[in-house]
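User: My collaborator sent over this chain with a note saying "see what the structure looks like." That's all I know about it. Can you take a look?
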Amino acid sequence: VQLQASGGGLVQVGGSLKLSCAVSGRDFSIHGMGWYRQTPGEQRELVATMANDGSARYGDSVKGRFAISRDHDNNTAELQMNSLKPEDTAVYYCTADIREGIYYDDYWGQGTLVTVSS
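Assistant: Without extra context I'll predict from the sequence alone. Here is the result:
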């Protein structure tokens, strides 16, 4: 199983950006997808997650500005980021809770850099 994230880049304060994550592989099922972010010297923090039932959870700092969505047919997730602030600058990581056979594990993508300039 592999996760491929895309969509990062440079954006001005107040702008918008959309991140995408695609899960590929064989003989797996997804039980949740989400996004975390990390800045140098800091711990990785929750941005947003979405379970298979559509329930979403957001980090406090992004509530009302970011929205996560999923396409179950295509094994993808997107993160729409609006009203971006300089403090949103970070490497964003896609993650998925994957079941392969009887095993569950968390998989992570390679990270995509988002830079918000003032």
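A starting point for your reply to your collaborator: The chain is about 0% helix and 60% strand.
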